[in-house]
Design brief:
Blueprint: H1 2-21, H2 25-35, H3 40-64, H4 70-92, H5 96-121, H6 134-151, H7 155-166, H8 171-197, H9 204-224, H10 230-250, H11 259-304
Amino acid sequence: MRKLTLLAIVGLIAQLVDGSLGMAYGVTTTSLLLLIGTNPAAASATVHLAEIGTTLASGTAHWRFGNVDWGVVFRIGIPGAVGAFLGATVLSSLDTATAKPLMALILVSLGVYILVRFTLRGLRTDRLGQPLRSRFLAPLGLFAGFVDATGGGGWGPVGTPALLASGRIEPRKTIGSIDTSEFLVSVAASIGFLIALGSQGINFGWVVALLIGGLIAAPIAAWLVRHLPPRVLGSAVGGLIILTNVRTLLGSSWIDAGDTTKAVTYVVIAAAWIAAIAWSVGEHRKDTALTPTAATDDEHLLEADPV
């Protein structure tokens, strides 16, 4: 019961982050399941089964708050479903000794990308309103769906920054559209895992616990997306993903690091993580402070030179 409660809390926190940032539900919950010794394919299958419910609830909430571009949802979501099915098939065919460090490596890479992307670059909004082409969305969806199934998460970490970096769709609609299209990805990945694995290794009690936490958080996150600074949240989540999965890598047969190496590595990662969050908070405050200043300057100009 204690483990189920913990999983529900993790599901709630992960969905709060995912619904407000457009990423990290899968990588956060999969990282925890790997940490407690779950088979990689079963961990990804468990998360994707839970995500069928959480993404449906999240998509509905985002739609009600006006955060969804349906053209983007289908043009990226359908190729994403194809990629997810293929990724589930590939992961299910790997043995655990190979799959666990491989998944951890993918998750660390995604964590580094999230941390660097949001800490150093923030969000781009100078191309808002320009059309997103299918020749961009379809390959992106196919790749993100494949990574999502093989890594236990990755749809958001790949898709959300790519759409934000394009600068062609406002951040809240990027997040809402990615979260909504993830329903198609979750269904396809779950079908792929169930065909390849059956129900072997999947704990449906864990699925329900993650689902309950996610369902509670989904409408809250859809509202929070208008208020929380994504830059700071991205830095916080990226560091957490890195730290969690580096632990798995260092203890794997690939590396098998000693205690001293592990301790030094954890300290270095923690220090970089804290620095990244501090930098993001500072940059967010600068951006916030500049907005009223610019407005005040414009008012002075209008007063000095009325039209």
